[in-house]
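Entry 0007
Protein: Haloacid dehalogenase-like hydrolase
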Amino acid sequence: MFVPRDIQTAARAVVVSLTIALTPAVALAQSDPLPSWNDTAPKAAIVEFVEKVSKEGSPDFVPEPERIAVFDNDGTLWVEHPMYVQLAFALDRVKAEAPSHPEWATTQPFQAVLEGDMKALAAAGEKGLVELIMATHAGMTVTQFQTIVTDWIANARDPRFKKPYTELVYQPMLELLAYLRANGFKTFIVSGGGVEFMRPWTEKVYGVPPEQVVGSSIKTKFAMKDGAPTLFRLPEVNFIDDKAGKPVGIQEHIGRKPIAAFGNSDGDLEMLQWTTLADGLQFGLIVHHTDAEREYAYDRKSEFGHLDLALDAAAINKWTIVDMKADWKQIFPGN
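Output (structure tokens):
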């Protein structure tokens, strides 16, 4: 089709004008490493910290091997209400294994699980929880447990959002993980959750490989079985990576002191203290759950993700507090 030259010229001018007009906006969007964060104080604090420690010549410059960032998982990277995801896994495992254990029908805390009696289950306390974990997480090889976890995480659905738990990760924190890695940080998960429960899926979901996951564990025994080397999971607690256990786990597994720590509860208090109360520039951040509409709102009185002492310590130690409702444009990917 013939188009007069003057029309071609005019059209070209319009395209060039639009390109020039849109370029700054496009460049700005591409240059924003944290697009799901509102332009509030927490985002500014994160960017300022990263720029200071990663810019050569800066008085606060930190060599790449020392740029260690540690993240809690439950409530910091993904949803932890109405209960911890691993607890939901344990409850499902009790129900799946119940036919092989008829005695569970009249034995607490298993009876409470099978009858859906959450009040009785809560009354069983930490002792009851340990019993559930030992019964559902041990008595098998490491490989068998990994398969069970992988299958469950692929098929389980959150009761409120009706989505896989791996889709209920926090988009702003995914961006933060990527931003830190792009600036020479090595990112670790340091969680009270079971290390073997997390390792099968953390690399796919967070970009954190299994060797960079620190968590609670049960004892494991090496044995030759039918001529093949195996690791067998025993019904005995090995290490609890929570509260004061987190700095110990960091030292034993990572061997370097972090310069940035991210948590959301009192279980992360000691990890934040260990990371930030030292010489040099460090960064501590607490995710405060304040958005009941898009996620949940809870802190000092919550059974899961209890945030009390750490919230007070944040003000004293000048840790950054993220108000999920005010500081995040979106909570989950795709929302």
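Curator remark: Confidence is low (pLDDT under 50) at residues 1-29. The radius of gyration is 24 Å.
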